Amino acid sequence: ALRKTTVDKVHFHEVGAIDSIVDTVGVCLALHLLNVDAVYCSPLPYGSGTVRTAHGLVPVPAPATLKLLTGIPTRPGPPVEGELCTPTGVALVKAL
User: Which of 88, 52, 49 is nearest to 69 (CA)?
Assistant: First the structure.
């Protein structure tokens, strides 16, 4: 579930927490070192089905991903089930 909270109370509780931090810092560092001025992205495929999280099975796109996708162009994914957009990836697209 999405909750309003303060920054000091935010914590990662999914298995990929370290991955998410490394992905975010790595992308930002690479863009900085490469002097990238702009980032462009085609509409994101949103996927379908379910994904298992610490909170049990959730629909794809997961609630956090769906919230982050607000305002971002999307398109249906290929005819397979699975998570095609992660919260980390969508957050990076949205921030950049």
Answer: 88
CA pseudo-torsion sign 28, 26, 88, 20 = negative
- Summary mean pLDDT of the chain: 85
The answer to whether the pTM exceeds 0.85 is no
**Strand pairing category for 50-53 and 74-75:** unpaired
- Angle, helices 87-95 vs 17-33, to 10°: value is 30
Q: Which of 41, 2, 27, 8 minimizes the C-alpha distance to 88?
A: 27
The residue-averaged pLDDT of 4-21 equals 66
Amino acid sitting at position 55: H
Nearest to 43 by CA among 4, 69, 15: 69
For the residues 60-79, what does the mean pLDDT come to?
Answer: 90
